[in-house]
Amino acid sequence: MADEEEFTDLKEEFEKFKDEFESGGLAAVASKIKSHLEDMDNVQLNIAITGESGSGKSTFVNCIRGLGAEEKESAKTGVVEETMEPTMYPCPKNPNVRFWDLPGIGTSNFQADQYLEKVRFDQYDFFIIIASERFRANHITLAQAVQKMGKKFYFVRSKIDADIYADKTQRKSSFDEKKTLEKIRQNCVDCLQKLEGGSPSVFLISGIKLHLYDFHKLEETLEKELPKHKRDAFLQALPNISLQISEGKRKVLRARIWKLAALSCGVAAVPIPGLSVVCDVAILVRELRLYYNTFSLDDESLQSLAQRVDKPVEDLKSVIKSPLAKEISTDVVLKLLTTAVGGGLMLVEYWASTIPIIGSIAAGGISFGTTYYMLKSCLEELAEDAKNVLTRAVESGV
Question: N or C terminus: fewer CB in 10 A for the chain?
């Protein structure tokens, strides 16, 4: 049965489509939903990654997209400046979310006074300014320019894992990781005091170990400050590297379920032999594949995670229980719908008395209820599998 929060959200969402339903029924609602989902699927997010040469920009671009340094789609990394012009790198999970690896400011090819114009700063949604040691005048110049444009920027102090390792090696008896991190953070804040409006937040990050230190704080900050449509796109595009991100993905995908159920039952729907259900199975197949990939349960993502934790990929796969891990096809969806009819009927009976649209479509509501119940059940299964995979990876020291 739907929980109270889910029920309240569903009721509010249906109210937004009340006029369409009253004028054209479920088909009109589905048509508007189709247009809305297409708009959401086409949302673009352009994120600029900038800073001085050698600060770990390219490594950050790779890791935040779930890639290592050697994949075909990886940004080039090295001890010398590899990025000579703005280079766009799409996220494998959502190509419309694009990270731009910008040339290092202060290099011989890009002097500070020419930099902003040459990298076309106006095309980006926000900026992540990276430093691997201390923030300098060039970083402040960049931030001030971004401020004048009325756009957001975020300071990242990179290579924290190297700093921690060095301090731990040098201070074997007195090492205190918490104090070391606080010292680094305070140094960054002191360097940035010249910025108008005071010192901004600084996020301490390891480019090759995003799950450590402040990456989750950066991700949470972006979630709060991005517009909702871009926030959802950003979250879905991230690699599934933490339980917090996994839970965020689940919430974003859950909010789509009723729309997909209405769309499947109201546009190009066809009767399913042997079932009192009318729906477009192809829509459901695509959505389930989206769940699977968003939770990084595909072979490529699992292999990348296995390499990062130095563990056999079969060990990670062993905790995946959903049958969708083996196949997502029309036949599989038809079987899932068959088993979901009973649950769908209970949902419709539960909703009908309090959600006018559901009550009005009565007989046709079984199709909506069945597809809704099926999608929700599959989402919860795959979300649980993703959680189990991350837990197993953490056990090995992700």
Answer: N
